[in-house]
Design goal:
Shape: globular
Order of helices and strands: HHEEHEEEHHE
Largest sheet: 6 strands, mixed
Radius of gyration: 15 Å
Structural class: alpha+beta
Number of strands: 6
Strand order of the largest sheet: 3-4-5-2-1-6
Helix content: 40-55%
Length: 141
């Protein structure tokens, strides 16, 4: 096992034993949801998966209607999270195709889908036993 793999394993083990998500993770996922909403994302779903999954504490699942919008939503999320929380994603996948972009912040994972991909993969059903967080977009002035 490489050092990186051992480090990841150790981090995963500590997450598994402590299923209480951090306030920072909750704040980050709410920031991401608001940034997505600002770029006109729809069907924003926030799931607290810490009790049912060791991958992260929270998932955000959002929809954009074109490749350009999916990229814009992803960029807006990255920019706002960096500004508010001083964090960059550990990994981002899918920007070149932009039909499903995954942004991994460690304790929060954000999925930005086009409608067809979201319907096909149906992550809400797969993680349906996770608790949903209430998210109300900020009112425009």
């Amino acid at each position: 096992m490489s050092e990186l793999t051992q480090l990841e394993y150790s981090t995963t083990q500590s997450t598994v034993t402590d299923n209480t998500p951090s306030d920072e993770a909750r704040g980050l996922i709410l920031t991401a949801a608001q940034a997505a909403d600002d770029r006109k994302a729809v069907d924003i779903v926030l799931l607290q998966v810490s009790e049912v999954c060791y991958l992260a504490d929270y998932f955000a699942i959002v929809t954009g209607f074109s490749n350009v919008q999916v990229r814009a939503i992803s960029q807006a999320i990255a920019d706002q999270v960096e500004e508010d929380w001083g964090r960059l994603p550990l990994r981002t996948q899918g920007l070149s195709d932009a039909s499903w972009v995954v942004m991994d912040y460690g304790d929060a994972i954000i999925h930005v889908f086009k409608p067809q991909e979201r319907e096909f993969y149906n992550l809400e059903a797969f993680w349906g036993h996770a608790d949903r967080l209430d998210f109300s977009p900020a009112e425009e002035c």
